[in-house]
Write a structure and sequence with these properties.
0% helix, 136 residues, 5-stranded antiparallel sheet, globular, 52% strand, mainly beta
């Protein structure tokens, strides 16, 4: 039996550096990271960035094999830097960024740095699917 859940999440920045608090799905409402359950895949298809004022903003999608472990580090999977006001879209439909839930301790988060406070938002479209799903 295939299990799939499409995640459409968004968040805004509130300082010059930090981790985006994601909202938009009841299961991850107000979460700073998305857990990848054992036997599932997290597939990132799209990142949208909206910058209201001219500034440099960098968003980094990160993976951690076990965020509850003090010895575990966040590893960058994709980085997006914008240097002017506007709306930017980055698509991975043909080849999504995939994180496998091998042990059920894995997680994904979106961190950011920017030159001014506020005025920047990010949205992601992703999917949690079981590993039997043959489309990767």
């Amino acid at each position: 039996m295939r299990v799939r859940q499409v995640l459409s999440l968004y968040g805004s920045t509130n300082s010059t550096t930090g981790v985006v608090t994601l909202v938009g799905q009841p299961a991850v409402q107000g979460a700073t990271m998305i857990a990848v359950p054992q036997g599932m895949k997290f597939k990132l298809y799209r990142v949208d960035i909206d910058v209201q004022a001219s500034q440099t903003a960098t968003f980094v999608v990160q993976y951690n094999p076990n965020p509850s472990s003090s010895s575990s580090q966040w590893v960058p999977l994709a980085q997006f830097t914008v240097t002017a006001a506007g709306h930017y879209s980055f698509e991975y439909r043909a080849r999504p960024i995939v994180v496998y839930g091998m042990l059920g301790t894995e997680a994904v988060q979106v961190s950011y740095t920017q030159t001014a406070v506020g005025g920047t938002a990010v949205a992601i479209v992703a999917e949690l699917a079981d590993e039997e799903d043959e489309e990767s």
